Amino acid sequence: MFKQGLWYALGAYGLWGFLPIYWKLLSKLPALQILCHRMIWSLVAIVLLLSLRPAQGQKRWQWLKTALANPKVLRIYALAALLLALNWALYIWAVNANFVIETSLGYFINPLMSVFLGVVLYKERLRPGQWLAIVLATLGVIYLTFSYGRLPWIALGLASSFAIYGVLKKQAPLEAGKGLFLETATIFLPALSLILYWQFTGVGAIGRHNLGTDLLLLASGIPTSLPLLFFAAAAKRLPLSMMGIMQYIAPSIQFLLGIFVFKEYFDASRLMGFCIIWLALIVFTSENLLYRRKQAHLLAV
Description:
The protein is built from 14 helices and no strands.
């Protein structure tokens, strides 16, 4: 069980880590067109995956009828769909505009952004170690602002949109695959309408380049849905503390891709800013592990 979970987690975070390579192969296309295709084909992939799952009798899609009858559920997933679209659009644009290193920064600071939102939205009380991690991360962002000569808005945009998305998903009643179905279904028609408009006006991506580009667009739902299913399987088999540590695999891979594969500019000054962020993550993760171990010990006594 544990070993299976480990492989599922490595599959999920590995696929997310190498995802920039996929979008780089489509860099000749506008980010908005890539996003719309990703939304459409993600829905198709999720429908196929949900249809192939074992189900009892004719109740495979009974959950959808229940969800559609609940206005609160629809509101949650509509907002989640909007945030997901913004996050995906910013990520795809940033990767193809040669900001892979900055996208990795966004996903490094995402856990700390989630903790910060917990304080702001739910009045959660932080332990001293958590406050130290947030202060260090803030100092790192300030340092990088001076290093970049601008606020690292791509990283902050990715981190904040995904953190808020996480807050919404915390309130959502459906499991990951069904939730992603509702989210992509929510913006399926707008995305399809845009794609059809572009195709009829002669600026659509399909058929304008080569067969390889067309196939990559049509398959764009796979790298979206597959790691999500791996993640869901891993979460059921691994302790939360291990999942928390392994989540840094994806941005680490992206960071290395940005430097060694895509040859993005990265000097000693920016490295210093990243080192401050990494120190914050070490403090955050270590404190969290020690706290959980202490709680487990107290429960065992």
